[in-house]
Amino acid sequence: MAKRINAACCTLLTSLCLALPAMGQNAKIQIPADTNLNTYFKELQGRPAEAEALYKIGRKVAAVCALCHGEGGNSLRPDVPNLAGQNPAYLLEQMRQFTAGERRNEFMQGLIKSLSQEEKVGMVVFYARQEVSHKPTNNPALAGKGQEYYGQHCLSCHGEHGRGNETIARIAGQQSEYLKLTLKRYREGSNVRKESLMTPNARQMTDADIAAVVTYLSSMQ
């Protein structure tokens, strides 16, 4: 089964690598390869016409990403993250980490390396404007326990509404299985992601804590 999945991913990656460069090749905007994209994005806020052009590029890229991350960045799979409403600077940093090998996923690393600078910025502009589909919890008691844990241990970084900031991920409304897997990877010290503030914090979490927090977070708007 794993071999079949890997083969399918490789086939899809090859197709995407061939298709993506054509998406932005006719764009008038060209961002030099050595540009700091976080700085560029901040400056872009004062150039609405340029931002709109990049949004259109990003919308085309997102149409390909929808194969895994869903239409408009709302994933249909609980183990694949939503990108809708995610903080742009955070997404740019994750792409940098994938490219640098600081965050590991063979498929994502290959895909992101195939993107142009314009496609990367355009994609985050697009996803930042999308809304996360709200999924109310079917276990309010467990969500209540998660809310209590979140208020004690997570709120100071991720904010009251779970929307993070420029450097911290939005986790409100995120996919449940993806959140659970991510927290367990941090707790176990997995090398999938580089060491971060989340690592020591997650080490304190029991399976029950993770289940409660995930239930609460996935139901947040």
Describe the 3D structure:
- By secondary structure, the chain is mainly alpha-helical.
- The chain folds into 2 domains: 8-23 and 36-128, Orthogonal Bundle (Cytochrome Bc1 Complex, Chain D, domain 2), CATH 1.10.760.10; 140-218, Cytochrome c-like domain (Cytochrome Bc1 Complex, Chain D, domain 2, Orthogonal Bundle), CATH 1.10.760.
- The chain is built from 11 helices and no strands.
- The protein has helices spanning 2-24, 37-44, 48-69, 88-100, 106-113, 117-128, 140-153, 155-158, 176-188, 198-202, 207-218.
- α7 crosses α11.
- It starts with a helix and ends with a helix.
- Residues 1-15 have low confidence and may be disordered.
Coarse morphology: globular
Regarding CATH, which class of the largest domain? Mainly Alpha
CATH architecture of the largest domain: Orthogonal Bundle
Q: How can the largest sheet be summarized?
A: none
Count of individual beta strands = 0
CATH homologous superfamily placement of the largest domain: Cytochrome c-like domain
| Chain-averaged pLDDT | 88
Instruction: Give the helices and strands as they follow along the chain.
Output: HHHHHHHHHHH
